[in-house]
Structure formats: structure tokens, C-alpha cells
Q: What sequence folds into this?
């Protein structure tokens, strides 16, 4: 079974990458730590030391429109923080 994995490139994630050699990914909710580790090692050719996962809960959103108040919610997702071995990096922008 193949899982979806996409990098998260935000200021906080970039700071974590520069200071501690950790990379942040948005992964499928049904993926476990071992599957995430195998997938990252295959895709990027690096050695993963540690995988931390968390469920990020969706936020409630509301906006005012001409027809009235519209309420909604963003979806939940699973986030994985990958720690790589010393001296290894992942270049997300090599394909551009």
C-alpha cells in the first residue's frame, strides 16, 4: 500500500531544518512510523535516525459574506518530523 508524503516548507519548519537537521512532512493518516521511515529513505536516499508523528487538528473557520455567515472547518492531517543522520540533507528544490 502506497502512502502520500509531501514536504511542509514554512518558516518554522525551515528553522527546524537549519538548526537540528529535522524535516517536516505531511503524511497519510494511516501511515505508521516504520512505513514513513522506509518511504523517506527510498525517495530521498538518506538515513533516517528518528521519526516523530502528530495529528494536527483542523481549525474552525468563519467568514462574512453578502448572504450571511458561512462556517466551515479545515481538515485534520498527520504530520511527521524526520531526523536525519549527521551530514545528510534533503534538497526539495533540486527538481525546479
A:
Amino acid at each position: 500500500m502506497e502512502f502520500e508524503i509531501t514536504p511542509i516548507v514554512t518558516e518554522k519548519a525551515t528553522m527546524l531544518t537549519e538548526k537540528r537537521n529535522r524535516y517536516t512532512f505531511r503524511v497519510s493518516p494511516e501511515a505508521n512510523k516504520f512505513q514513513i521511515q522506509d518511504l523517506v529513505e527510498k525517495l530521498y536516499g538518506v538515513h533516517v535516525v528518528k521519526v516523530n508523528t502528530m495529528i494536527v487538528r483542523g481549525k474552525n473557520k468563519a467568514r462574512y459574506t453578502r448572504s450571511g455567515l458561512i462556517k466551515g472547518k479545515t481538515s485534520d492531517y498527520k504530520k511527521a518530523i524526520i531526523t536525519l543522520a549527521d551530514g545528510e540533507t534533503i534538497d526539495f528544490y533540486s527538481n525546479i
Notes: The two ends are 28 Å apart (CA to CA). The first helix runs from residue 11 to 20. Strands lie at 5-7, 22-27, 48-56, 60-65, 68-73, 77-84. The chain has a mean pLDDT of 93.
